[in-house]
Amino acid sequence: xxxxxxxxxxxxxxxxxxxxxxxxxxxxxxxxxxxxxxxxxxxxxxxxxxxxxxxxxxxxxxxxxxxxxxxxxxxxxxxxxxxxxxxxxxxxxxxxxxxxxxxxxxxxxxxxxxxxxxxxxxxxxxxxxxxxxxxxxxxxxxxxxxxxxxxxxxxxxxxxxxxxxxxxxxxxxxxxxxxxxxxxxxxxxxxxxxxxxxxxxxxxxxxxxxxxxxxxxxxxxxxxxxxxxxx
Length: 231
Known about the structure:
This protein is mainly α. The chain has helices spanning about 5-10, 20-30, 45-55, 60-90, 95-125, 125-135, 140-165, 175-200, 205-225. The protein has a domain at about 90-230. It is built from 9 helices and no strands. Helix 4 (about 60-90) packs antiparallel against helix 8 and helix 7 runs antiparallel to helix 8 (about 175-200).
């Protein structure tokens, strides 16, 4: 649910059947696999194809993904309307170059920097937690520790969301703000997936949650890259 979603990766419609999904996956893997097409080999493409099939190839994880995809489309439309309204407000109120520079600096210091720090804390701690849990996913103590980790992440996510919404972003940082917005949304989706694992020990929730965190991390990188010119 970034620029290319799983359905686009497999080059199929969202209403495709499970059989069509499998056929599309096999066709693309054969097309990009180094053994069958050395000149057209693309390791990054293979990774995206496998990640897409891991989610869409399982009906339960696909249903969960479809719900998030539909919510993402609605959020995108709402965000676009909000950005349009914000842009119109700034067109009414003309600002000097100095005013704009000060606004950018304040937003970076009071919004972007603390939010960026909280997101990094959440994302960077996931791998260790998954490694610890994998020692014995059915161990009650490990599950309690994992649940505490999720609770902590929820608190940090809430702090980040409150901070992010506390003031509007400067128009020149609209791209950065959009990346942060969707990054926070993907983290929330990932935590929603993780919380179901202790209820039924279905590893599909762990895999989907990790995929959401991977997308969030990529969005964060893009946000970080977009503010480099201001540092």
